[in-house]
Amino acid sequence: MSGAKPKPKSVDDTEPQGSETAAEEKPSTAEAVPPPDVPPPEVPPPDVIEPGPELTPEEAEQARKKYLLKRFWISARHYWGSSGDKFAWPCTIGLLALIGINVGFQYGINLWNRGIFDAIERHDAGTVYFLSAVFVPLVLGTVAVVTTQVALRMMIQRRWRSWLTTAVIGRWLANGRYYQLNLIGGDHKNPEARISEDLRIATEAPVDFIAGVISAFLAASTFIVVLWTIGGALTLPIAGFTVTIPGFLVVTAVLYAAITSSSMAFIGRRFVQVSEAKNQTEAEFRYTLTHVRENGESIALLGGEEEERNDLHKTFTNVLGQWALLARQHMRTTLVSHGSMLIAPVVPVLLCAPKFLEGSMTLGQVMQAASAFAIVQGAFGWLVDNYPRLADWNACARRIASLMMSLDGLERAEQSDALGRIKRGETEGEAMLSLNDLSVSLDDGTAVVTETQVAIEPGERVLVSGESGSGKSTLVRAIAGLWPWGDGSVNFHADRRLFMLPQRPYIPSGTLRRAVAYPGAADSWTSDEIKAALDKVGLAYLNDKIEEDAPWDQTLSGGEKQRLAFARLLLHTPDIIVLDEATSALDEKSQDRMMQMVIQELPEVTIISVAHRAELEVFHSRKITLERREGGAKLVSDIDLIKRKRKRNLLSRVLENRRSPRKAGTASNKARSPG
Question: Locate the ABC transporter domain: which residues (predicted)?
């Protein structure tokens, strides 16, 4: 461990209630250091304007969805900004150039079609052989351009996703926000699915869309000129009059595309809504499956398989229902798209047939017109072919934007004094930890713990007690910096390290060595040091398995996990330890051995324990009691459990009883002192 000034920070990225903290920086420093290549944090967007009463619920929902798409682009577009990827613009310009070159090759093949069929019509063998030879480089060039275009497009998608994912994860993990999201309201459920799956689609699809739109525009612009030039005007005799339609092939192509596109828009008007609902039910189903896996032991011991099966069946039924609705939308859109695909190649041939039969158009021109019409129709029908995916992108972009909005709210609260934030700083004098006028509240301002003032000296072992729901664990989280809302301050002694042991220790994936060393690197200690730590906590029988990569979170029992957490203490040698029901899974004898071991191995350490067991009093020098009251829990008792040679500097103006509890506590507990 380094000698840098400490800062309590959570190291549990998956189970905030089971986090262990090894603080190595100054406690008052609240900003998390971003990993390399992470863009600087952006200023949170302005608050969402609440819809007025004049809007109907449907209009308010549309306004919300519109803002969500705007919120996504506020962050996503910075990939091309000064803080974005240095390869973003070169790759983008290269992709646009390749799209233009590809359209040029399409035009070349279109001309080749005219030439080869004209030569066949004239029985010109020499021209046919020559054009056959020319066809090879045309195909090779087209394949090379398209292949390079795909590689460059996917590179942009990959790098954009990497950049934005890193930025979102950086904001998600900063200042314990990944934990605080569990404490506030909002549409941010299953953030792991939003970051992994929704963000992937949200960054892949726009690149495809923009490349497709530009390609379609260039192709349509080029081959409309071809159609206008080849087709010319069409003269039709109607009721004794002649009607001339200039550029009849172009007019037909535009009308045909307008009919198919409008039909698709009408038939698939609910596609976005259905796709978004399907994605949400899929995420909920994944979450339910993950929840069962993570709590498999408890479910098995309680025999809850049938109840879990029913819950999974209910969740999966919702998925199937949304899939059925989505299937209907696909059926309707397929009806339009497939019908268009079959009809489009025939229309230009039928339109050009009269001119070919009368001799004003050659076979080559007919085939060139058919090829150009198909390309123009494909360009105009781009929406028809991509409407389902566009709907899926809308849903995914809104889901990741909802998570961003929740992070915006937390970030805005960190920078605002409207709600109240717990300050963090350094203690004065020799005090290891002090809570000055500390009040802890929910994000809506509801008080949980109020007006707590305590000073803890180096080497003190303080037991925090109180009935369930009195705010003990909340107070611990406020000390660790995981709970930001409230008032007052939490101050640490400079150059001291804090380590937290929760009731449910976090066991990372990988080897047992990594699990013991966490949150430090697995190779920070030798095998002998790790084995010695395991031996001291009664896990010597695992020494032969420290290099074994296994699902230790599922393999170890609750008691073994708590013993392993104590082994981490011996490796990290912190200055302050916070134990939050850290021995609840141990029997009384094992609990005594763990506490005696800590006192013996780390005699100078300061301990703050949260526990219900009265047996733990013997291992502490002081006891603080919280009592749940209307308006928030309060500190109602602070007594010495062992006699101290000098007077302690204790702030206790919130104590309601002035009955000298320390003397009574000293007399009644002197016999229980561990010495």
Answer: 433-655
